[in-house]
Write a structure and sequence with these properties.
membrane; LivM-like; single chain; about 75% helix; ABC_transp_permease; 14 helices; about 325 residues
């Protein structure tokens, strides 16, 4: 029977998701950890396409997640529209902002691109504080209404399940996108942009598309976290989250989007759910990234794949 590309990764992701949901159960704290992990994973997945596939490091993902979060907050508190509309409007607005920012910074790369987009993220946060009539100022927006789908209102555990499913679906789709002809062109563009241009592909357009995809995914994560928390403030999506999202794929494995998901699980476990290092989880995480880059440059998944190959080779020699 012919298997489709990425099926083994999908199977591993589904098994991991089921185990996490069984571990969570009715524990409210664990449910909060999983929704936080899903948010981290979605922001990291959002960075995967422009950063690891296209080679364009943007630091504005806190703003994109904030757009998704405030879309949920504004539609919930200041309109009578169905709340599900927020997960349509938020990603579209975030993608549009990413394209505009990409056009403004199209001649920048490396450190300069990271610096300018970092400043944009900071300016967006400052604007949210000043725009009290829209964003609620520094207090943000709270007491958000519940999602209503044809009379059904999901409880917290339903949100956890839905978040896990969304992460798995997006990771799988990005994995397929990575292996598609478009994904091959984007990855080649990262290493040899002139060769891609010579083949008739517009590299700037491809960059803008990758930025739009990443921003939309991050906005989905921002909306998810806002709905789960029931409120959003200008400080909800900080630069700390953006920096963590950069390292998540490196921890889990940069060769596949599933590495970003695994990296998010490890990051949350170390920084939020490991009592032994709860006061220094970020430091432990930083040291872990250093060790992984030295010992397993392709991340945990890459190292696991290497071990599997070694075991298979050893079994083949014995046979």
């Amino acid at each position: 029977m012919k298997r489709f590309p990425g099926s083994f990764s999908l199977l591993g992701g589904v098994i991991g998701a089921v185990l996490i949901l069984l571990w969570v159960g009715a524990d409210g704290y664990k449910q909060t950890l999983v929704t936080t992990t899903a948010t981290y994973a979605l922001i990291a997945l959002g960075m995967y396409v422009p950063y690891l596939m296209a080679g364009s490091l943007s630091m504005a993902y806190g703003a994109y997640a904030g757009i998704g979060g405030y879309a949920v907050g504004l539609i919930s508190s200041k309109s009578g529209l169905p709340l599900v509309v927020a997960w349509i409007v938020g990603p579209i607005v975030a993608a549009a902002v990413a394209v505009l920012l990409g056009l403004a910074t199209r001649r920048l790369s490396g450190f300069f691109l990271a610096a300018v987009t970092l400043l944009f993220g900071m300016a967006f946060t400052a604007w949210l504080v000043d725009a009290e009539g829209i964003s609620g100022g520094s207090a943000g927006l709270g007491s958000l209404r519940k999602l209503n789908l044809f009379g059904w209102q999901p409880d917290h555990y339903d949100v956890v399940v839905g978040s896990t499913v969304v992460v798995c679906v997006i990771a799988f789709l990005l994995d397929r996108l990575r292996m598609s002809p478009w994904g091959v062109i984007v990855r080649t563009m990262r290493d040899a942009p002139r060769a891609v241009e010579a083949a008739g592909v517009r590299v700037p357009v491809m960059n803008l598309v990758s930025l739009a995809i990443g921003a939309a995914i991050a906005a989905v994560g921002g909306g998810l976290f806002t709905y789960s928390a029931g409120s959003v403030t200008p400080d909800t999506f900080t630069l700390n989250l953006v920096f963590l999202a950069i390292f998540m794929p490196l921890i889990g494995g940069s060769a596949t989007p599933w590495g970003a998901v695994l990296g998010a699980v490890i990051a949350v476990e170390l920084t939020l759910n490991f009592p032994a290092v709860e006061t220094s989880g970020t430091l432990i995480l930083a040291l872990g990234v250093l060790v992984i880059l030295l010992v397993a440059p392709q991340g945990v998944i890459g190292y696991a794949n290497r071990l599997v190959r070694l075991i298979n080779n050893a079994g083949g020699r014995r046979g």
